Fold this sequence. Notes:
The structure is a single chain. By secondary structure, the protein is an alpha+beta fold. It folds into two domains: 6-67, no CATH class; 87-275, Alpha-Beta Plaits. Helix content is 41%, strand content 24%. The strands form three sheets. It has an eight-stranded mixed sheet with strand order 4-5-3-6-9-11-10-12, sandwiched between helices. Helix 6 runs antiparallel to helix 7. The protein is globular.
Amino acid sequence: MPTLSAKQRASLPNSAFVYIDSRGQRRLPINDEAHVRNALARFNQVAFEDDAARQRARKRLLNAAKKYGILPIGFISSQLQSERKQATAAPLPKGFVTLLMTDIEDSTALLHRLGDRYRDLLKIVRAIVRAAVVQAAGREIDVRADEFFAVFKGAGKAIESAVAIQRALGKRPWPDDLEVRVRVGIHSGRPTLTEFGYIGLTVNTVARVCSAAHGGQIVISGDTKEAVGVSVPTGIHFSRLGRHRLQGLANPELLFQVEADGLASRFPPPRTKATP
């Protein structure tokens, strides 16, 4: 990591540091990629004045990591226990939200090939998905076998998270030259929040949208595209896939594919029967 002289450090603005204490001391520089990686490693060594200061610094550091294309899996894993405690205490968002669901393609075949080693692969996939969800300010709802379920207040953040997931998985080497692909489905709506979590048609729909996708693909509903509106995350585009009947749903759903650099773009038709 490049070191900063006293003069160089003094010339940096406060925004180039993760944390400024009440005495004006500036800690954990984040003015370039190398310093961001160092700040991630040293974060737990800093004595913050209170929890609010720690959370502000954590958010600033995650934003810096995102700026430099860093998906800090190790950092988020180390923070996960406290994050879950806070999540338990804080209620899940109500009203209009965006749900994201992931599913590992051909997981049964992978399990047969890897046997007990499939557990390690599953842990890696979950860690990547969790890191991307937390970095995009999402909340984990549930994990079952090879499925992961999360909620976001904003549709754009959910899409950013999905893109980060696919990019990270695409760069990851896998044992035995396996191809590990995850399908991602996103849908926006107003699910009912109960003591057991979210229920309702919105939940059923996101599961069906996810099932319609292929491994490596991100499919969103027309409601999510509408929710994003003109606030489309930079570098992301949508390709119309047409209207499709999803299992168990009365009306056809308009589907779109998310496209961005680093993502595969050519897939077979959605795993449904298209309608005019």
